[in-house]
C-alpha cells in the first residue's frame, strides 16, 4: 500500500475549504477554484496563490458546477446562484428544502442533471437527501441520509458514487447516463478508521479518491479496497479534485483546537499530489 505526502499548493486559512473544481469563471481560462464554505467565498488558484473570486456574504458556498453553455452554478445555503459567462450572478434558483437542512456537495452528471446533496443544519436538524435537478424538475433521489457528502460518476456514467458520512459508507449506485435514473445502492466501502468520509473524485480508471475529515489523508479506493493513502499536513481534509494528473485537496480549520493548529499550521490551505493517472470525464449540467 502506498502512503505519500501531499505538498502545499497555496497557503490559506479557510475555515472550511471545500468544493474544488476546475472551471472557467467570467470568461477566464479554466482554473482550479474552491470555496470557504462557511464564509461563502469562492477562491481561484493562480500559480501558488489563491485569491477571492466571488463572495456571497451570509451564505454557505458548498459546490461549484459547470454548465454546458459556459455558465456556472454555485450551491449556496438553500439556493443556487447561476453565473453568466461574464461571472456575474444571472439569477437565483430557490429550492424548497426541508426545514433544518442546507445544501452540501453537488455535481453534474452525464444526463445533464444537477445532483445536490442536502444535509442536516440549524438548531432542529432534519435527515439528509440527495436531489436531482433538471428540465424535468426536482426529484428526491435518496432520502433518510445521515450526511450527504461526496458525489461522482464512473467514466462510462453507469455508476453514481455517493458518500453518507454518518455511517461512513461510500455507496455505488447503478445509474442510467441517458436518463439519470438510479438503481439499488450497493456498499462499495465502509470506513471504520479515524475520521469521517467527506468529498470525493474519480480518475480515468474509476479509482475513487476520498477525503477523510479528521484523518489527515485521502484514501484511494480501487474496487472498494484501499489501494493507497495520500497523507496531508492537515487533519481536517474535506474534498479533492483532479486537474489532469494533479490531485488538489482542500482542508479546514473549523473547530480545530490550538494544539492541532500548532501541529498543523497549514490547516485551511490547498494541497496537491501528483498521480499516475488523469481525471475522468468532466460532466456539465444543463439548465434551460
From TrEMBL:
Which SUPFAM superfamilies does the annotation name? Answer: Calcium-dependent phosphotriesterase
**What region holds the SMP-30/Gluconolactonase/LRE-like region domain?**
30-253
Q: Which Gene3D superfamilies match?
A: TolB, C-terminal domain
Q: Which Pfam families match?
A: SGL
Q: Which family does it belong to?
A: Belongs to the SMP-30/CGR1 family.
Q: Can you say what this protein is called?
A: SMP-30/gluconolactonase/LRE family protein
Amino acid at each position: 500500500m502506498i502512503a505519500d505526502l501531499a505538498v502545499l499548493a497555496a497557503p490559506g486559512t479557510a475555515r472550511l475549504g471545500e468544493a474544488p473544481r476546475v472551471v472557467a469563471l467570467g470568461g477566464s481560462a479554466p482554473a482550479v477554484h474552491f470555496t470557504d464554505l462557511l464564509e461563502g467565498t469562492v477562491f481561484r488558484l493562480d500559480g501558488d496563490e489563491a485569491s477571492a473570486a466571488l463572495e456571497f456574504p451570509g451564505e454557505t458556498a458548498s459546490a461549484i458546477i459547470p454548465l454546458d453553455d459556459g455558465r456556472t452554478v454555485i450551491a449556496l445555503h438553500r439556493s443556487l446562484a447561476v453565473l453568466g459567462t461574464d461571472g456575474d450572478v444571472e439569477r437565483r434558483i430557490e429550492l424548497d428544502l426541508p426545514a433544518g437542512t442546507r445544501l452540501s456537495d453537488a455535481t453534474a452528471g452525464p444526463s445533464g442533471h444537477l445532483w445536490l446533496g442536502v444535509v442536516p443544519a440549524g438548531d432542529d436538524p432534519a435527515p439528509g437527501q440527495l436531489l436531482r435537478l433538471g428540465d424535468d424538475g426536482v426529484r428526491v433521489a435518496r432520502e433518510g441520509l445521515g450526511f450527504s457528502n461526496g458525489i461522482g460518476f464512473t467514466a462510462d456514467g453507469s455508476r453514481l458514487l455517493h458518500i453518507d458520512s454518518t455511517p461512513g459508507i461510500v455507496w455505488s449506485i447503478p445509474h442510467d447516463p441517458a436518463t439519470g435514473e438510479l438503481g439499488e445502492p450497493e456498499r462499495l466501502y465502509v470506513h471504520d478508521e479515524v475520521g469521517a468520509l467527506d468529498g470525493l473524485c474519480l480518475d480515468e480508471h474509476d479509482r475513487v479518491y476520498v477525503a477523510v475529515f479528521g484523518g489527515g489523508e485521502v484514501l484511494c479506493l480501487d474496487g472498494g479496497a484501499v489501494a493507497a493513502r495520500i497523507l496531508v499536513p492537515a487533519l481536517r481534509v474535506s474534498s479533492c479534485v483532479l486537474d489532469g494528473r494533479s490531485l488538489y485537496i482542500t482542508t479546514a480549520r473549523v473547530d480545530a483546537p490550538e494544539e492541532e493548529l500548532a501541529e498543523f499550521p497549514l490547516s485551511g490551505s490547498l494541497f496537491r499530489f501528483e498521480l499516475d493517472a488523469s481525471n475522468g470525464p468532466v460532466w456539465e449540467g444543463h439548465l434551460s
